[in-house]
Write a structure and sequence with these properties.
It contains six helices and eleven strands. Strand 3 and strand 4 form a beta hairpin. Bound molecules: hypoxanthine (HPA). The site of hypoxanthine has 14 residues, from strand 5, strand 10 and strand 11.
Length: 267
């Protein structure tokens, strides 16, 4: 019987194809939220799924991404660990363009997104704990992988998620910094929350592409974000490959029991 992927990469801006995978197949996975097309391939003897969050040609803006379909599809095919790349602006002078950050907290400033698989009715109501919204084990494994590769990376930090698709005002950036934010992006929420509801380990591989609005001396452009991601694509690929090699998809941790109080995640 053909096996299913147990590790997934969700690629953000600048990460549109699963470069390190071999023997790639395309899977179409039906979910209650629509059909998700993802790719599945092999790396280091492991099967890995890949979804480009914005579509393969960056045609889906952050607020219109079908986050629920993507996470449901990964759960359905048996994925247990997700590494999600995100381009971010830096609010923290210590974190510079080209640096990796593996956040351990988020602040949610999104406005129009559905944040849950549980909207009452048959599926009921679930209040999932997100005291530590990202998988601590995966953060550790990413930090180890970055250290091994001698990459500039920070473990921990607070990811601020904005609604987008516009960039922030200088006043917003100042406020987010005062609130404890370190980096700002547009796609980390609700993805992390849905993964926790689906009892999948999830963490964000943030790449700093710019200093945030008002900190940067220049006006922000998507081109700058995209170009920094492109320039660092080899580092992203190496980091993901090293981490995937180290991850044992069958290890258990608290993420896999997030809905214990509610009888576990059910399709
Ligand atoms: N703000 C929001 N999202 C981003 C940024 C930013 O400065 N850079 C990359 N993604």
């Amino acid at each position: 019987m053909k096996q299913n992927p147990t590790i997934a990469v969700i690629g953000g801006t600048g990460v549109y194809d699963p470069k390190m995978l071999s023997r790639i197949e395309t899977l179409a996975v039906d979910t209650p939220y629509g059909t998700v097309t993802c790719q599945s391939g092999e790396y280091a003897g492991k099967l890995v799924a890949f979804i480009p969050r914005h579509g393969s040609s960056h045609s889906i803006p952050p607020h219109l991404i079908n986050y629920r379909a993507n996470i449901w599809a990964l759960k359905k095919i048996g994925v247990r660990k997700i590494l999600a790349t995100t381009a971010v602006g830096s609010l923290n002078p210590q974190y510079k363009p080209g640096d990796f950050v593996f956040p351990d907290q988020f602040l949610d400033f999104t406005k129009s997104r559905v944040l849950t698989f549980f909207e009452g009715g048959e599926r009921g109501v679930v209040h999932v704990d997100v005291t530590t919204p990202y998988c601590q084990d995966l953060i550790r494994q990413l930090a180890d992988a970055a250290a091994k590769l001698n990459l500039s990376a920070y473990s921990g930090g607070c990811y601020v998620c904005t609604e987008g698709p516009r960039f922030e005002t200088a006043a917003e950036v100042k406020a987010y910094r005062h609130l404890g934010g370190d980096v700002v992006g547009m796609t980390g929420v609700p993805e992390a929350v849905l993964a926790r509801e689906a009892e999948i380990c999830y963490t964000t591989v943030s790449m700093v592409t710019n200093f945030a609005a008002g900190i940067s001396k220049e006006l922000l452009t998507h081109r700058e974000v995209f170009e920094t991601m492109q320039q660092n694509s080899e580092n992203i690929r190496k980091l993901l490959a090293e981490a995937i090699e180290a991850i044992d998809p069958q290890t258990d941790c608290a993420c896999h029991h997030a809905l214990q109080e509610f009888g576990g995640f059910k399709f």
